[in-house]
Amino acid sequence: MPFLFSPLLWLLAACVLVQLFYAGYYFLPFARRPQEPDADPEAADAQPVSVLVCAHNELPNLRRLLPLLLQQQYAPGFEVILIDDRSGDDTYLYVQQLTQYYPNVRLVSVDRTPDGLSPKKYALTLGIKTARYPRLLFTDADCIPATAHWISQMQQGFAAPAALVLGYSAYAPEPGFLNKLIRFETLLTAMQYLSFAWRGRPYMGVGRNLAYTQACFLATKGFASHIRSLGGDDDLFVQDAVRHGQRVAVRAEPAAHTLSEAAPTWSAWWRQKRRHLSAGKSYRLADRLRIGTFVGANLLFYFTTAAVLLFSQPDWVSLAVLWGVRTVILCATYATLGRRLDDQLPVVWLPVLDVVYFFYYLALGISLFLHRNLRWK
After folding, report:
1. What is the dihedral of CA 205, 210, 25, 30, to 10 degrees?
2. A single GO molecular function, which one (predicted)?
């Protein structure tokens, strides 16, 4: 059968159309949206905020993070709550010393976690209960704010008005292919959850840069619905908040970002991604279909191409046109979003990273299906 009339060609074309729809409706419009206004600390809705950091044996990271938090410029004021989750290092002594000099630094110590509960969610719940202010802002111990205006930029999201604000957390550029792949995966994930939320279909956020109100936490009954699941203190919480009618805003300007160091080894990243993906089975059906359609169309595109090359006599012109259109538009989309988020990857690497990422994603999915046991640190 001539390739021009082959079902494989039409399947390949359908995959490209699905991907172009996502690029044209979600990703590119989000990347090209109007510039968000600068935060105004004197605005009537500006309020003090509680910044919460949960740490488990992360003293070196805290020595880097906490001074940067204390340098934040936010006129309404803020407190920093460090939740020491069963640390065996000198975290307690270090933070205790800070509390002597900075009255807005507070320490919450967790000696043990009740059996069967997620340690991080239990620790975060204790920290939230002690917070003085209605607005809560979260980051991780291994993150740093991108600017001294991180708090004010993230708080601006509540002016939407919203009860929950999604931010972006990038990884610092380092030499090597693994770092590029991790940053590409982070960009691609953000491209989905930020643009979907911008279109009114929020489904997740990242705990490295997330804000919500105490009223939102109470309305969703905290982490009660997934307190026994290791992961999900960010994405499953967003799922519950949306189910309870909480409004979600996006605050993705570079000044509102946090920055982390990427996993140094493939095995460390593999474990991290397994934990993150394990929460996906609890997403709403509509969200799973929306995400799965995009990921599935990309995987099917590559599998169909392989089938064409192995089992048919392709029309090289048609095949080249489909590949060219897809590659140019998607890589332009990735590059545009990278510029907007100030997290750019070398353009020449984007087609390679795209191939590797989607097959890595498939391997993760198979791994989770075959081996479901996860461990918490």
Report:
1. -150
2. glycosyltransferase activity
- Among 79, 100, 228, 80, smallest CA distance to 141 is for 80
Are residues 3 and 313 in contact, defined by beta-carbon separation less than 8 angstroms?
Answer: yes
Q: Are residues 14 and 125 in the same domain?
A: no
Euclidean distance between CA atoms 78 and 11, whole angstroms: 54
Q: What angle do CA 149, 150, 151 make, to 5 degrees?
A: 95
Q: What is the C-alpha separation between 167 and 250, in angstroms, rounded? A: 6
Instruction: Please give the residue range of the domain that contains residue 346.
Output: 3-31+286-369
Q: Could you tell me the two tokens for 115?
A: 């059996």
On whether both 259 and 135 belong to a single domain, the answer is yes
* Closest by CA position to 134, among listed 29, 32, 240, 50: 50
Say if 185 falls within a structural domain. yes
Tens-of-pLDDT digits for all 377 residues of the chain? Answer: 454 557 778 888 899 999 999 999 999 999 999 877 665 545 545 799 999 999 999 999 999 999 999 999 999 999 999 999 999 999 999 999 999 999 999 999 999 999 889 999 999 999 999 999 999 999 999 999 999 999 999 999 998 889 999 999 999 999 999 999 999 999 999 999 999 999 999 999 999 999 999 999 999 999 999 998 878 889 999 999 999 999 999 999 999 999 999 988 988 887 777 766 767 778 999 999 999 999 999 999 988 888 877 777 767 777 788 888 899 999 999 999 999 999 999 999 999 999 998 888 888 777 766 665 544 44
Q: Buried b / exposed e across 112-134, counting CB within 10 Å, b at 16+?
A: ebeeebbbbbbbbbbbbeebebe
Q: Are residues 85 and 138 part of one domain?
A: yes
Domain count, the chain: 2
pTM: 0.91
Q: Is residue 295 part of a domain?
A: yes
Measured between alpha carbons, how far is 45 from 50 in angstroms, rounded to an integer? 16
Q: Tell me the three state secondary structure of residue 117.
A: coil
Claim to verify: residue 290 and residue 332 sit in the same structural domain = yes
Are residues 337 and 230 both part of a single domain? no
CA dihedral (236, 170, 212, 214) in degrees, to 10, reads 90
Tokens representing 253 are 């300007």
Q: Are residues 94 and 230 in the same domain?
A: yes
